[in-house]
Amino acid sequence: MIGANIRFLRKTENLSQEDFAERFGVSRQSVAKWESGDSTPDLMKAREIAEYYDMSLDVLVSLSLEGVANDEKSADGKYIFGMVKVGEGGRVTLPEYAREVFGIRDGDRLMVMGDTAKGGIALAKISLGNLFKKQ
User: Fold this and answer.
1) How confident is the model at residue 15 (pLDDT cuts 50, 70, 90)?
2) What is the spatial distance between Cα 42 and Cα 123, in angstroms, rounded to a whole number?
3) Model pTM?
4) What is the mean pLDDT of residues 21-31?
5) 72 vs 119, which has greater pLDDT?
6) CA-wise closest residue to 127 among 101, 100, 97, 103
7) N or C: which end of the chain has fewer CB within 10 A?
8) Distance between CA 80 and CA 66 in Å, rounded?
């Protein structure tokens, strides 16, 4: 499972095995062996990878990230669109599929909400006209 998750994380960021290896201070061959299942990263390296991607070691080792992320056409309307990186000034680029699903276009405004108890942040497409409409 860890090898498939490493491959998924690497490909999500469009990194080559060489780029991923450089990021974590290992050889490209090590990354290739991890991804093929011929070997696994040592505990400290696995923890470093998990921390970099802001997940627990348990998730990296035991949850199929690809299986969760590929559930794009979820019957219950819940999606995982992948990961994004926060850029300068807090800028985030939403994945194209997320913009398609929610009809988000250039110039649209999004409401930003958060819940510190659950450690989450959410975006909602809201029309100002809908905020003042009587129900």
Assistant:
1) very high
2) 37
3) 0.54
4) 97
5) 119
6) 103
7) C
8) 10
Q: Apex CA 21: angle with CA 19 and CA 24, to 5°?
A: 110
pLDDT at 70: 52
With the C-alpha atoms ordered 14, 36, 40, 30, is the resulting torsion angle positive or negative?
negative
3-state secondary structure the chain: CHHHHHHHHHHHCCCCHHHHHHHHCCCHHHHHHHHHCCCCCCHHHHHHHHHHCCCCHHHHHHCCHHHHHCCCCCCCCCCCCCCCCCCHHHCCCCCHHHHHHHCCCCCCCEEEEEECCCCEEEEEECCHHHHCCCC
Q: Centre a 10 Å sphere on the Cβ of residue 81 and count the other Cβ atoms it contains.
A: 15
